Amino acid sequence: MFCPFCRHPDSRVVDSRTTDDGTAIRRRRQCPNCGRRFSTTETASLNVVKRNGVLEPFSREKIISGVRKACQGRPVTDGDLAILAQKVEETVRASGASQVDANEIGLAILAPLRELDEVAYLRFASVYQAFESLEDFEDAIGQLRVDHHGTVDAADERA
């Protein structure tokens, strides 16, 4: 690590601590040449492989903006979306891979979004899973009901 003051090619780590919910490390460094101190932040890179094969850096903001569309008109706050994006990033980083398919990120979004708001979940799932008919919606709603009640109720059986 070059010293930003004197450009000496070495530095000594004086202190390290985690930041940004544990996804980054802040290091306090000191230059052995000039004695001045400076800070660095280290993060593990995570790249997303898009469907067309293009690589781009993972972005919580892209998660938030994509899910925000599904949450329009729903009682979901910006704080809720930030927590959802953090959960998605934690899930994706837990795999240990430095590259992850965009499809895997979509799958990682579904579970926390379902917990947050079921209507937003259905909206997101309908686009992400390419629902093509009313039956696709009915199946998804039926699965939500089964998960809520443990069984399909009489109204669902008549349908």
What this model shows, in words?
This protein has 159 residues and is an alpha+beta fold. It has helices at residues 60-70, 78-94, 102-116, 118-128, 134-149, 154-158, and strands at residues 12-19, 24-30, 37-43, 47-49, 55-57, 99-101. The strands form 2 sheets. Strands 1-2-3 form a 3-stranded antiparallel sheet, with no helix packed on it. A 3-stranded mixed sheet has the order 5-4-6. The chain is elongated, with a radius of gyration of 22 Å. The chain starts with 11 loop residues before the first strand and ends with a helix. Mean pLDDT is 89; it is low at 153-159.
What helical percentage do the residues reach?
40-55%
Listing every helix as H and every strand as E from the N terminus to the C terminus, the arrangement reads: EEEEEHHEHHHH
- Poorly predicted parts: 153-159
Largest sheet: 3 strands, antiparallel
Which structural class fits the helix and strand makeup? alpha+beta
DSSP helical segment count: 6
User: What would you call the shape?
Assistant: elongated
- Side by side, the strands of the main sheet go 1-2-3
Number of strands: 6
Determine Rg (CA atoms, Å): 22 Å
Tell me what portion of residues adopts beta-strand conformation: 15-25%
CA-to-CA gap between the ends? Answer: 66 Å
Question: How would you state the average pLDDT, rounded?
Answer: 89
